[in-house]
Amino acid sequence: MAPAAPFTATGGSEIYRIAPDGSPKKIWESHDELVYSLAFDQRGRLIAGSGNKGRIFVIGPDNFIDLGKVSANQVTGLAPAPNGGIYIATSNLAKVFELGGTADADGTFESDVFDAKIFSRWGRAAVLGSGGFDLYARSGNVDNPDRNWSEWKKVDLSRELPMDVPPARFLQWRVVLHPGTPPASIDSVLVNYLPKNVAPEVEDVYVQPGARFVPTPRLPADNSINVGPPSNATPIRFDNPPSAVRDKDYVSVRWTAHDDNDDDLVYSVYYRGDNETRWKLLKDDLTDKYYSFESALLPDGGYTILVVASDAPSHTPEEALSDSEESARFEVDTTPPQVVNVAAAVENDTIHITFHAIDGFSPIRRAEYSVDGGDWHVVEPIGQISDYRVENYDFSVPLPTGDSTINVEPKSTDSVPAAAKKGKNVKPQSGEEHVVVIRVYDRFENMGAAKTVIHGR
Questions:
Q1: Which residue from 78, 161, 277, 428 has the fewest beta carbons nearer than 10 Å?
Q2: Number of structural domains the chain divides into
Q3: Do 434 and 343 have their domain in common?
Q4: 0.85 exceeded by the pTM?
Q5: Over the stretch 325-384, which tens digit does the pLDDT of each residue have?
Q6: By residue range, what is the domain housing residue 301?
Q7: CATH code, 286
């Protein structure tokens, strides 16, 4: 059975001073430290013990002093000790320390471990302070400085040179304060570093035939409203692509990518057909993570998309790195099927219809017919299953039985039969005529049509 993990709390703390009239005033706050104990030393200074890093602070009316750190997580109790000192009780682990009432000859402060996120080279250190002090630094590739870190190395602040510490991901610095006049104090320590350039990563590429991205409308320059950073700041970018709409004449591509250096990225989109060996460029110099193009640019067939991400905008050509990712295979079909060999004849009280449907790439999806401008009706191929690029159809439909008489309203009495001159019903003098229209769809909703005219009985 594994031992239980030590309890740690999260959050922050605030310290207030209550005036004699009962009004409060905040004199200290921290988003990271949790104050577990308060006490006054013999000089009347407010001492605060905190967690989860076991720190001790001297709280003043306008500032504070990070007095020290104990080898425990929480400082849970403070009490006066002889000679102006303070007893310190801690938890995780339970210990008791004594803080002396007099200052040591030298004071030492260690920073938290800094995580550069990436293996980095360490440059010059700039310290803002006064009095006598020395700066030391060490580095390592794990977050625990007690495991395989470099030794403390003194930093020569008198020379404009990089710190003499090995390249690594993590860094920690230490300041040793010496007594003197004026008293030694440190306001800030700035460390310059250069992360090692790593290649961007393209995680996924998605292709959706029959869809098109609609760009987000942008306000004209004269109507723009500044609600963000100043005009000289880097513009805000949104990674989410705009909404896509159905459009059978387009193919949409979107991808996800990131760069651990937070470099600006530029993208190129390539395509390659089945049984082809060379990638062909569709579009380059893209800064968005999406792109739509007309499907008519590609002949009917199967294809794969390749997206290449480069950090060239943030680096010299010699240092720029790139990464790529392929999409799953997809198909493009923009050519409608053909309806050929359409034949129709009146047989008794039915119309017998035959035709062939042919598509050059994808299977036939469905076929429909209409007689004399009537409703469309689905018809199944011979074999009942529409699953091939060539399908044959042979079927009969009832002969329309509607009244074939028409009412003629003549415009000129010189060019119509005598019966029509009087606005009477007229029946065609020859046999009935019927129009049969066929339309066929493939798997990509391309439609082909044909018609035939029957001169019946």
A1: 277
A2: 4
A3: yes
A4: no
A5: 999 999 999 899 999 999 999 888 899 999 999 998 989 999 999 999 899 999 999 988
A6: 249-332
A7: 2.60.40.10
Mean pLDDT within 199-227? 74
Establish if 54 belongs to a structural domain: yes
Q: What is the pLDDT of residues 157-174, one digit of tens each?
A: 888 889 999 999 999 999
Same domain, 17 and 72: yes
